[in-house]
Amino acid sequence: MLYFARWKVVAILATAILVCGFTVPNFFSEQVVKGWPAWSQRRLVLGLDLQGGSQILLEVDLSDVRKQRLDSLRDDVRRTLRDARISFSTPPIVRGNSVEVRLREGPGFPAALAKLRELSQPLGGVLQGNGQRTLEVADAGGGLIRLTPSDAAMTERIRQTVEQSIPIIEKRINELGLVEPTIQRQGSDRILVQVPGLGDPRRLLELLGQTAKLEFRMVDNSVSPQEALQGRAPPDSEVLFETEGGQQVPILVYKQALVEGADLTDAQAGFDQRTSEPIVSFRFNTSGARKFATATQENVGRPFAIVLDNKVISAPVIREPILGGSGQISGNFTVETANNLAILLRAGALPAKLAVIEQRVVGPGLGEDSIRAGVHASIAGAILVVVFMLATYGLFGLFANVAVAINVGMIIGILSFLSATLTLPGIAGIVLTVGIAVDSNVLIYERIREEVRNGRTPISAIDAGFTRALATILDSNITTFIAAAVLFFIGTGPVRGFAVTLGVGILTTLFTAFTLTRLIVATWVRMQRPQTVPI
Amino acid sequence: MHLLRIVPDNTKFDFIRFRRFSFPMSALLSLVAITLYFTHGLNFGIDFSGGTLIEVQNKAGPVDIAKMRMTVSGLGLGEVQLQEYGSPDTVLIRVAQQPGGEQAQQQVEVKVRAALGDAVDYRRIDVVGPRVSGEFLHLGIVGIMVAIGAILIYLWFRFEWQFALGAMIANVHDIVLTLGFMSITQIDFDLTSIAALLTILGYSLNDTVVIYDRIREMLRRYKKMPMTDLLNTSINSTLSRSVITHVTVSLALLALLLFGGQAIHSFTATMMFGVVLVGTYTSVFIASPILIYLGVGTGRQNAPDAPEEKEAAAVEPPPPRKAPAVAARVRR
Questions:
Q1: What is the nearest CA distance from B9 to chain A, expressed in angstroms?
Q2: Distance from A73 to chain B by nearest Cα, in Å?
Q3: Pair B235, B261: CB distance under 8 Å
Q4: What is the pLDDT of residue A386?
Q5: B184 at interface of A, judged by CB pairs closer than 8 A
Q6: Strand, coil or helix: A201
Q7: Which of B176, B249, B237, B236 lies closest to B206 in space, CA to CA?
Q8: Which 3-state string (H, E, C) describes chain B?
């Protein structure tokens, strides 16, 4: 156990030095580090609990996604039947998680059913399909056909919704001028947003809480809004509300949009030149401009509605055709709400509603205090353990302290190389590891003591002590490692940071116990040829 | 240099006999802990109960908590708790979960900010919605069970099933007592508490495994030694290590407790209790003696409670270990 081949000595020392070397970038500013090779630039990232900032967990509103899917499915069914000239006895409606339509039974029924079955596509395209389809089309008897989106198709749609939402969220955050946000998907239907340095996320929350779906639609004057509310709305129209002086005013508008927010290229907040009210001016892209021009030419003298997230912002009358492709929206804005709307329009609409389900904000003051507390606790812990080890084992205590110091260096080195996030519980994990790392030395030393008591010569005792203790060290550390691994998988944020440092600490402890401590003691034995073991 | 020696060499404490005292005591304490759990309950933090937590620091010195409580209570937010947090100018405001789903939770922060204004510094705001809080609790419970299960399987492979079972009983004992501690102190039970529980589990096991390792070694080496002697020798010969390691871990935890700040205070306090008080005790007084009942070494001469056996233990010292030492020397 005490003999090391030369190449092993070199390998052990090189590993220790290299891993400890990964801590170096942390001591320099980012500007300095930028000039170094890419692999040597990695550094520890301070968690939001240490540097301050906001963390927001968003969840896609499943019912919103489902509703959108069912509404568009209903429209598809209607269009398919109309195009194929199939008459129905009851028009398609959304019921529960399905769309239902009742066809006339008769010789044409099987053909109609086949036509509707064509709406169901193989999931994931024809090429990579795995047999699953987007829809289940069931003949419920009596001419009733029920079309239900499959679970797999809904899961896929939710995944797409999350994917489409992330760049839009990113744009919105960037529009607020916030630096270095991290936005990542979490699980199947969640998005984690972290913004360092943001101590008051209210404005961000306001922006993320809106889908910002902007539509220009014609107002339907065929029946009065009051009649429509009583259930006599034409099938192509719906009642939306406009807030006017605190009152909800119903307006009947067509479901079909003339132009949508996706056709905008730019939006800016400003002031109306005549009334000096806050407004949002916008510009359409080419196709949007053409559509808007045609629609306004055809409808001069009639009102249209500007609809945002199914609420009417304003419903002006078209005085003259708008051909230039730009316009402005006014309607009870404050400077801030006009600004927000402009940001939302520039960033684009979210594909579905997002709900904030968790929010953690740490102000800069607390972050600084936490860093200070972490540093103080680390120093105090280190001093206490070092002094105790010296008092208990003397020279061998010094060996242990050297091994533990290198151990801590390696932990920080590995964490830096992984660009791991350092949190306050993470620092606690390192301090605890110091307490645990010396345990491997204690196990070895106590075993050596025992072997000496049993009458062995010093060198034989040291040798046997290492051999026997290392098996124990391996067994005992693996159990702790299992606990750390579980913690890593279930934990989030700071808790995860703790699990990472604990797990890495165990690995480095095993390394130092099996190689470094042994090497130090072996070198000492070779140089001193001890007659007694000084512990 | 005179070195510190906490545990004298060659201790001969009869840990196995002491189980007559330690087992009933542990059973009683566990019962107390379970009773406390059901009568006092745990003080669930917002991670598990949902709601809003706001830490504010008054910019102009100590806070008049009574006045602030009046202000916040008047906002119509339902149950509100205020407590001094670390220093007299810092207050922790806890607002229960609001009815009305995920969106409604956001209003708490808006209203509190409007009421307290800029006179205070908002150091921390945590909002946990109803959906997430339910998941956290579920995840925590599952996590602890998975950890115990995984460790059990590992021990089963490395040792024998009796050892795995013994370690598991010790584990459950640790967790029950720690939960009792959390109940009696009403420490916030949140995600970091789950982390603390898992760490306690890991360290208590770490300790147990060190002794088990020795027991296994002795079982292989001394085929005829009575079980009680074997266990006692194993525990006694690892005792010095157990104590020294626990001093170092306690020193590290003490540093965290004193200097680590409020944010991890409940975490370190729980760890201090679990690792230092319960963990060591369990591995020495529960996990090892219980092996007798689980039938480790039943092929040996004595049943656990045979009276002659204890006399034998007193009269006959453990056999000297010269032989293996010689063998090792020869091998070298």
A1: 9
A2: 28
A3: no
A4: 93
A5: no
A6: coil
A7: B249
A8: CCCCCCCCCCCCCCHHHHHHHHHHHHHHHHHHHHHHHHHCCCEECHHHHCEEEEEEEECCCCCCHHHHHHHHHCCCCCCEEEEEECEEEEEEEEECCCCCHHHHHHHHHHHHHHHHHHHEEEEEEEEECHHHHHHHHHHHHHHHHHHHHHHHHHHHHHCCHHHHHHHHHHHHHHHHHHHHHHHHHCCEECHHHHHHHHHHHHHHHHHHHHHHHHHHHHHHHCCCCCHHHHHHHHHHHHHHHHHHHHHHHHHHHHHHHHHCCHHHHHHHHHHHHHHHHHHHHHHHHHHCCHHHHCCCCCCCCCCCCCHHHHHHHHHCCCCCCHHHHHHHHHHC
Give the C-alpha separation, B232 to B213, whole Å.
14
- Cα A438 to Cα A393: distance, rounded to the nearest angstrom: 11
Nearest beta carbon to residue B147 from set A358, A370, A482: A482
Over its length of 535 residues, how does chain A's per-residue pLDDT go in tens digits? 678 888 989 999 999 999 999 998 888 888 888 888 887 788 888 888 888 999 999 999 888 899 889 988 988 888 888 888 888 888 888 888 999 988 887 788 888 888 888 888 877 655 555 667 888 888 888 888 899 998 888 888 899 899 999 999 998 888 888 878 899 998 889 999 999 988 888 888 888 888 888 888 999 888 888 888 887 778 788 889 988 777 888 999 998 888 888 888 888 888 888 888 898 988 888 888 888 888 888 888 889 898 988 888 888 888 888 888 888 888 778 888 888 888 888 888 888 989 999 999 998 888 888 899 999 999 999 999 999 999 999 999 999 999 999 999 999 999 999 988 888 888 888 888 887 788 899 999 999 998 998 889 988 999 999 999 988 898 888 888 888 888 888 877 677 888 889 899 999 999 998 899 999 999 999 888 888 887 7
- Selecting from A425, A439, A482 the residue whose C-beta is nearest the C-beta of B245 gives A439
Contacts with B105 from chain A: Cβ below 8 Å = 356
Chain B positions in Cβ-Cβ contact with residue A500 (cut-off 8 Å): none
User: How many alpha carbons lie under 13 Å from residue A286 in its C-beta half-sphere?
Assistant: 0
Q: Got the DSSP string for A46-58? A: E-HHHH-EEEEEE
Cβ-contact B226, B302 below 8 angstroms: yes
Nearest Cα residue in chain A from B59: A365
Q: CB of A460 within 8 A of CB of B328?
A: yes
Nearest to residue A149, comparing CAs of A106, A196, A94? A94
Q: A358 vs B129: CB contact, 8 Å cut-off?
A: yes
What is the C-alpha separation between A285 and A303, in angstroms, rounded? Answer: 23
Query: Residue A367 is which amino acid?
Result: G
With beta carbons less than 8 A apart as the criterion, state whether A211 and A355 touch: no
Question: pTM for this one?
Answer: 0.80
> What number of residues does chain B have?
332
Within A409-458, strands assigned E span: 421-422
Give A-chain residues touching B254 at CB under 8 angstroms.
Answer: 381, 384
pLDDT tens-digit map of A456-487:
998 899 999 999 998 889 888 888 888 888 88
Give Cα separations from A228 to A13, A43, A238, A259 (angstroms).
Answer: 82, 63, 8, 24
Q: Using the beta-carbon criterion (under 8 Å), do A502 and B123 form an inter-chain contact? A: no
